[in-house]
From TrEMBL:
InterPro entries: FAM187A/B, Ig-like_dom, Ig-like_dom_sf, Ig-like_fold, Ig_V-set. It comes from Myotis lucifugus. Pfam families: V-set. Residues 1-18 form the signal peptide. PROSITE patterns: IG_LIKE (PS50835). The gene is FAM187A. This is Family with sequence similarity 187 member A. Residues 271-346 form the Ig-like domain. Belongs to the FAM187 family. Keywords: Glycoprotein, Membrane, Signal, Transmembrane, Transmembrane helix. The keyword Lipid metabolism does not apply.
Length: 416
């Protein structure tokens, strides 16, 4: 190919790129904003991150501002912007207990909320600095605290739909996750959120199906909210088995070289995934997260060669569980013991991605802080024990005075 042909191809490619950019900018010109503001209903599970696109805006508006209200017409409105376009954080820096104002970001007119909590449920408005609204959402964040797990391998079935006159309460399940392990028996699951169908819903809220919204929607009247309060999200779990992808030739050659340079019968140990080392003090709690995993990902945990299946280790399966996996895919170890030592492997989307070598020691200093729940529990138990001992002592002293010998009054003795 000669130089003129190359120049023509580069010019054509540049023209196509410019056309693509113009097309993206003209999306807002082709999408008129509604004359009457409606609310799109959207439901998510707690600890998930979600994105709300601003589907329409006037052409002259170059930057949008997002607003939040807990209820329509509330006097308290949160402004989700720094008036410079985007704000504040990255998903890796977000903690569960953080306020909404430090858990969002604005990118290309869309609002991103990280690790959403039930308190974030409400109405979200896309608008201008002057308070003109273009698009709005009705967001329902459903709590995972009371989530009910259903295991198909044990013959369990999801909850049946609930019919109460014209009210229909049911669970809408998402797609199955990929198998969380490969080469061995794994698990996959699907999340189900609470939805209802009723003719008494507010007409100002846009529904994906006629008269159907999520149970925590602001379109649900108060008289119906109490009837759907007991219908919690569900988690459906089943076994699966998929083959692993072929290992790369590079790793095979590396192992051959290591076997050659090593001594006979003393093959060096080469970790298959990155290993992180952690030393934990005896009897203290630990939470391990899988790198790069989100709550909607298929995540699995192994301890050495033991597979920690959700059928036995999912949070809530047993009230007295010391080691469990929560609904956000974190591995919890309460009151660490010596036999907890080992390597904990993390699988993400069917591939083992990381390992954590845990050591347990009974030595070392531990910084005491009242924010530590274990320290608070110890102080509460100490205080309760002190109050019980004080009550027993006072009761014993009073009883001794009542049943003891009568007191002698020297002035009342008869003369000798």
């Amino acid at each position: 190919m000669n130089l003129p042909h190359i120049i023509v191809l580069l010019w054509a490619w540049g023209s196509l790129r410019a056309f693509e950019i113009v097309e993206k900018e003209n999306i807002f010109q082709r999408t008129p904003c509604p004359a009457f503001l409606m609310f799109d209903n959207a439901a998510y599970l707690a600890d998930m991150s979600f994105e709300l696109p601003c589907h329409c805006k006037p052409e002259e508006v170059s930057a949008v501002v997002w607003y939040y209200q807990e209820h329509l017409g509330s006097s308290h409105t949160k402004v989700l912007t720094d008036f410079d376009g985007q704000m504040l954080t990255a998903a890796s820096q977000v903690r569960v207990g953080s306020d909404l104002l430090v858990r969002f970001s604005i990118r290309m007119f869309s609002l991103l909320v990280f690790r959403a909590q039930p308190e974030d449920s409400g109405l979200y408005f896309c608008g201008t600095r002057k308070g003109d609204y273009f698009y709005a959402y009705d967001v329902d964040i459903q709590s995972s605290e009371e989530m009910v797990a259903t295991f198909k391998d044990l013959g369990q079935e999801p909850f049946a739909d609930d019919y109460r006159g014209s009210l229909h309460v049911f669970t809408t399940f998402w797609e199955w996750t990929p198998c969380d392990r490969c080469g061995v028996r794994g698990e996959q699951w699907r999340i189900g959120l609470c939805y209802l169908q009723s003719p008494d819903l507010s007409p100002r809220y846009r529904k994906t199906m006629p008269d159907v919204v999520s149970c925590g929607s602001r379109a649900v009247p108060r008289k119906l909210q109490a009837k759907v309060r007991d219908h919690t999200p569900e988690l459906l779990v089943q076994s699966c088995l998929v083959p692993c992808k072929n290992t790369t030739k590079i790793r095979g050659r590396l192992m051959a070289i290591l076997n050659y340079v090593s001594k006979v019968g003393r093959r060096p140990w080469l970790p298959q995934v990155p290993i992180q080392y952690h030393q934990q003090r005896l009897s203290h709690g630990l939470i391990i997260s899988c790198p790069g995993a989100r709550p909607e990902h298929a995540v699995a945990w192994d301890k050495d060669r033991q597979h920690l299946y959700r059928t036995q280790y999912l949070k809530g399966t047993n009230r007295s569980m010391r080691v469990f996996i929560d609904h956000g895919n974190h591995l919890h170890i309460r009151f660490t013991q010596l036999d907890d030592r080992g390597i904990y492997y993390c699988w993400r989307q069917g591939e083992r991605v990381a390992g954590f070598r845990l050591g347990v020691t009974s030595q070392g200093r531990y910084k005491v802080s009242l924010s530590d729940p274990e320290v608070r529990s110890a102080l509460e138990l100490t205080l309760i024990g002190y109050l019980l001992l004080t009550a027993v002592f006072v009761s014993w002293r009073g009883r001794k005075k009542r049943v003891g010998e009568p007191r002698i009054c020297p002035l009342c003795l008869p003369p000798s």
